[in-house]
Amino acid sequence: MADDSIAVVDLDSCQPDRCNYECANYCPPNRTGKECITTRGEDADEGDPDQIRISEEICLGETCGICVEKCPFDAIEIINLPQELEDDPVHRYGDNAFSLYGLPAPQEGRVTGILGPNGIGKTTAVRILADEITPNLGQWDDEPDWDAVMDEYRGTELQNYLEELQEGSVTVARKPQYVDRIPDRFDGNTRELLEHTDERGVLDDLVERLSIGPVMDQPIDSISGGELQRVALAATLAREADFYFLDEITPYLDIGQRMTAARLIGELTGTDRSVLVVEHDLAILDLLADSLHVAYGEPGAYGVVTGPKSVKNGINEYLAGYLENENMRIRPNAIEFEEHAPRTAAASSPLVEYPDLTKSYGDGEFSLTIEGGTINENEVLGVVGPNGIGKSTFAELLAGELEPDEGSVDARLDVAYKPQYIEIDQPMRVDAFLSSITNDFGSSYWDTEIAQPLQLERIMEQNLTDLSGGERQRVAIAACLSEDADLYVLDEPSAHMDVEQRVQATSAIRRYTENHDATALVIDHDIYMIDLLADRLLVFDGEPAASGHAGTPVGMREGMNSFLADLDVTFRRDERVGRPRINKPGSQLDREQKRQGEYYYA
Ligand code: ADP
Ligand code: ADP
Ligand code: SF4
After folding, report:
1. Per-residue pLDDT averaged across 124-153, rounded?
2. Average pLDDT of the chain?
């Protein structure tokens, strides 16, 4: 018996009619006549009667794991829980289902952050705090009871909040994670969507500061992801609520817009409102949150929400891969940033040299000028700048999809392009989709270089239409890198990926360019991802939607300085781990660094 282990069966994958119960046939306790793996039976709460259930009392635990190996559909996980987890879960969805340990504690007048991977139970925790789920303390067979939960949390940070929740006096406003799905649920224009939300009488101010004005009269299904994100933020922040939950605020926003969103959220908590944010852009999370809970575990199987930490310690411990109070290693390696010496690009031969270029749209409504430059073979060129400034236009000029008005680009360049907004909605399985793109699909080379680093194995049999945002992003990156091309252009690969996935995707892109004599141009607004990824920078500036300008590609120090000077933002280094942190505007360090012209590698 292994009472510290859990068995999780993914009921979407378990298909007994196709495997003939390989798991049960090989399970050692079953073979000695015990009922370890059985069928759910007619009176099971969830699943088909023929699907399996695993007795956690009888199961031998992770060291056995035979059923995990035998299951052809990867439907089973047997996991030894960390010994540090002494308590029962707060909630378990059912027999052999996901369980959540611990809850974040919203605090009046404060912004509480949650940092952790997707699928770890963050939404489950919020649904509990919003009184949409009454936690069952792991006893899914019993009627859940708030009194038992209160007993469990008496004397903790959560006591006050749970008391108010029990009295039914907590109101909640929530911004969903996937803003791209809003048009499926709302028919009408932006003004109509926003008009019923203005419970605090602040909508005009929000519309102005989030620059929503230009799209107020446009149909919701015609506006871009970045615009939808700002509309959804305004719709949530305009509500009158005790508890605001914001599930990712940064996807599709540029850094200036991210900072504005952070400022608006900070202002909201001036009263007794509490805000909980899930955010994977660590520079913004650092700026935004007053305290932080780290979430770890095994996505889809179990999640643990730690007690509150200072934001600085929480992020540092997360990056180091080791949680100090919990004495818990959550990753074998630390994520590290180069502190003082930005990489200087190794001399390599040029892939493309382009002259000064110009391009304008319509009657010069938008005009772009690009200074001539060179993109080198095997380099990752980071591209930074506000939205609407011409970055995608430049990528299309390189790809030969657009003709410049002045200058010309070597048209022999093969470009593979991952757009910012991914449209892969065919009713097709992931494996069929990817094998239609490359003959290398399934080769050990492709598995090592692409499928493993992008964690595609578990989603190969799913339909493209059923993927989560982070899964869709990984498939789109894989599809782009699998093409045979000279230049891989990736537009905002970080969107909807959690921090782990960003780091994995970063190393996949870097490795791929190094081993494949390929060159990548990566447009992203997550400064940590750009720092980890880029050898040199291409900086765009100008007036969004009116005129854009791109300099020639430059080294990281020069590029970061010119980009951040334009944004008026400086970074300092965390003294312990060398992580870049945004300086408070007007602080002594901020002023000193601006005086020296060192915005990033100070
Ligand atoms: P996150 O917000 O961290 O991405 P979620 O809280 O949405 O994670 O989900 C955590 C896990 O719980 C997922 O594996 C999900 O499939 C599972 N889950 C969510 N809702 C249910 C439910 N109603 N029944 C069973 N499992 C669920
Ligand atoms: P970025 O990638 O930096 O967000 P884009 O290159 O997509 O910027 O767009 C720059 C500007 O050009 C935006 O104002 C956009 O609305 C406009 N634009 C882009 N494509 C077209 C087009 N085909 N016709 C007219 N205007 C366009
Ligand atoms: Fe049976 Fe699987 Fe547990 Fe091994 S790990 S005892 S095969 S249920």
Report:
1. 89
2. 89
> What confidence tens digit (pLDDT) does each residue in 291-306 have?
999 999 999 999 999 9
Q: Which ligand is nearest to the CA of 1?
A: 3
The CA 471 to ligand 1 mean position distance, Å, reads: 15
Beta bridge partners of 491: 523
Under DSSP, is residue 270 helix (H, G, I), strand (E, B) or coil? coil
Tens of pLDDT, residue by residue over 254-283, are 998 999 999 999 888 777 899 999 999 999
| CA nearest neighbour of 279 among 120, 119, 116, 125 | 116
Please tell me the distance from the alpha carbon of residue 111 to that of residue 165, in angstroms, as a whole number: 18
CA of 395 to the centre of ligand 2 (A): 11
Does the pLDDT value for residue 84 go beyond 80?
A: no
Cα–Cα distance measured from residue 500 to residue 450, given in angstroms and rounded to the nearest whole number: 16
Confidence (pLDDT) at 344: 56
The Å distance, Cα 121 to ligand 1 centre, comes to 6
pLDDT at 1 over 50: no
The residue type found at 215 is: V
Give the chain's end-to-end CA distance (angstroms, integer): 56
Residue with tokens 């995608």: 392
pLDDT in tens, 34-79: 999 999 998 888 889 999 999 999 999 999 999 999 999 889 999 9
**DSSP structural state of residue 427:** S
Pocket around ligand 3: residues whose beta carbon is below 6 Å from it? 27-29, 36-37, 54, 59-60, 64-67, 78
Which pair of structure tokens corresponds to residue 404? 């410049």
What residues have CB less than 8 Å from 511, skipping those under 6 apart? 449, 453
Residues across the chain = 602
Pocket probe mutation, ligand 3, options 54, 57, 62, 79, max atoms within 8 Å of Cβ: 54
Portion of the chain with pLDDT greater than 90, in percent = 55
Rounded to the nearest 5°, which phi and psi values hold at 306? -75, 170
DSSP string, 411-458: TT--EEEE-SS----SS-BHHHHHHTT-TTTTSHHHIIIIITTTT-GG
In three-state secondary structure terms, 492 is coil
Q: How many CB atoms sit inside 10 A of residue 372's CB? A: 11
Strands 519-523 and 487-491: parallel
What phi, psi does 430 have (nearest 5°)? Answer: -60, -45
Residue 424, pLDDT > 90, answer: no
Ligand 2 centroid–CA 317 distance in Å is: 40
- How much is the ipTM here? 0.89
Whether the per-residue pLDDT at 411 is higher than 70: the answer is: no
At residue 216, the 3 state secondary structure works out as coil
Residue in the structure block whose two tokens are 């990984």: 474
Ligand 1 centroid distance, CA of 468 (Å)? 12
Residue 277's identity, in one-letter code, is V
Instruction: Give the Cβ contact number of residue 258 at 10 Å.
Output: 23
* Residue tagged 């969107």 (tokens): 495
Whole-number Å distance between alpha carbons of 558 and 46 = 58
Three-state DSSP string of 328-392 = EECCCCCCCCCCCCCCCCCCCCEEEEECCEEEEECCCCEEEEECCEEEECCCEEEEECCCCCCHH
Per-residue pLDDT at 112 exceeds 90: yes
Spatial separation of the C-alpha atoms in residues 361 and 29, rounded to whole Å: 70
